[in-house]
Amino acid sequence: MPDLIASSDGTKQKIQMGSRISLHFALLMPSGEEIDTTRRGKPAELTLGDGNLLPGFETALVGLSAGDDAQLIVPAEQAFGERVEANVRLLAKTLFADFTSEEPLEPGLVVSFQAPDGELPGVVKAVYEDTVQVDFNHPLSGSDITFDVSILSVESPLAEDAAQ
Predict the structure, then answer these.
(1) What whole-number distance in Å separates Cα of residue 42 and Cα of residue 22?
(2) What confidence tens digit (pLDDT) does each residue in 141-156 have?
């Protein structure tokens, strides 16, 4: 369960699985670096459990109410996962034949490979004479994420059912 840093205490409709919610949020790295936000635009609207948020972020919202402002620490394993060293692979440099002097193969470059279930992106970590080290971990894996949220509205899943 994520650690609650701060939240208001209200008696309004509390978020539960199936609740329709409108919220502003920001995702922050432990350093405070903002990696995503809705705060400078339109609020996010979703139904909790519809897959728009990772399960760890959804769990963090349960129990909050409209008007709540909260900063929740979502641990790495509930956010983008732990880093897995087996996901850092050495691949033959011949797999990267499309790269040229105009588009050099260098550390930091994001590359994508076709996988059975879609695209598999990775980040080049090092380029050697015959091989290339590629990290297939999510770039945010291994990091606890601060989920800074402002809940604008909450509709009970029961209210939706009654309206139908």
Answers:
(1) 10
(2) 999 999 999 999 999 8
